[in-house]
Task: inverse folding
């Protein structure tokens, strides 16, 4: 009976069968039957004579020496930075370079893969409808607004928290609020706070067609002869002269900037919370995360600067955008 640790027994049995078949009907006929060259037979026959059936198992192809392997100090630095920030290999390269540790991006990727620190992202096979990249010129030209469901591992059992997000498409500046319900007034209050927080005028707010942002697709569907009532967000936008733009149904890629920021929240903020917390503590932690995101975390989409720095650069070009 074959016994051993880490051995593929099926392959061992197949090769042992080939050797026995070759001795019975001849090497050439045995190799023709399984579709292999004679050299295949003689290779495993030599291995079998030297080490017995254990010689028929695959050996590790790992090299005996790896002179170009990264030093333990570099590996430790990459692992610590990854566990602390959950950054990808490009952003880790920039952060380590600022600390005087120069490591190629490809090397960081191999270290993360070898240390099993990579998270496999689920990919959906969908056809992209919009290939154009929308880069706006001045702050507040258009902001994207959406809701993210706070992971259930963070909220108390039986409770659900919601994150309201406003992202400026030009500068990537964001404003976040957290609530324990989806209420139409929450969207209005979040937009008001974002206007005060940003410090520049907002011309247009873009949302999806959820009931928290509009009644056009969800309210009074059975009463077609009636005019849908006005949504509080629409009323506020009309009052302060902000255009409210709705994306076409089913085209979430038009909200790409705010959706991508939600992925960052999940990877770098919510994943660091190891216990269930109440709404007050979530808001306190969220404020610190928002300050870090806007004024310390570099964004590759705006030239690897922070949203705060990029906002100041743009406001120098468009000073009329500042709120008086």
Result:
């Amino acid at each position: 009976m074959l016994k051993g640790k880490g051995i593929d027994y099926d392959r061992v049995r197949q090769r042992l069968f080939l050797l026995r078949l070759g001795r019975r009907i001849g090497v050439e006929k045995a190799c023709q039957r399984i579709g292999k060259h004679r050299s295949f037979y003689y290779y495993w026959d030599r291995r079998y004579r030297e080490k017995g059936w254990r010689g028929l198992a695959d050996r590790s192809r790992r090299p005996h020496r790896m002179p170009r392997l990264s030093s333990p100090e570099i590996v430790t630095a990459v692992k610590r930075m990854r566990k602390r920030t959950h950054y990808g290999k490009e952003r880790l390269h920039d952060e380590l370079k600022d600390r005087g540790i120069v490591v190629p991006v490809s090397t960081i990727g191999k270290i993360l893969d070898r240390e099993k620190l990579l998270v496999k992202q689920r990919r959906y096979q969908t056809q992209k409808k919009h290939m154009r990249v929308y880069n706006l010129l001045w702050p507040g030209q258009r902001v994207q607004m959406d809701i993210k469901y706070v992971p259930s591992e963070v909220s108390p059992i039986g409770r659900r928290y919601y994150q309201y997000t406003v992202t400026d498409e030009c500068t990537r500046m964001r404003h976040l609020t957290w609530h324990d319900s989806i209420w139409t007034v929450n969207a209005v209050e979040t937009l008001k706070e974002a206007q005060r927080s940003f410090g520049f005028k907002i011309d247009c707010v873009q949302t999806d067609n959820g009931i928290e942002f509009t009644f056009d697709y969800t309210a009074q569907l059975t009463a077609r002869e009636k005019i849908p009532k006005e949504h509080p967000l629409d009323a506020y936008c009309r009052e302060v002269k902000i255009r409210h733009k709705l994306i076409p149904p089913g085209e979430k890629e038009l909200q790409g900037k705010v959706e991508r920021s939600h992925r960052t929240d999940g990877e770098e903020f919510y994943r660091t919370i190891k216990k269930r917390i109440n709404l007050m503590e979530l808001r306190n932690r969220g404020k610190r995360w928002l300050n870090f995101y806007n004024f310390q975390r570099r964004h590759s989409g705006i030239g690897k600067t922070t949203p705060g720095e990029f906002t100041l650069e743009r406001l120098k070009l468009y000073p009329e955008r500042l709120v008086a």
In short: The chain has three domains: 9-56, 72-114, 143-321. Residues 144 and 206 are 5 Å apart (CA to CA). The radius of gyration is 30 Å.
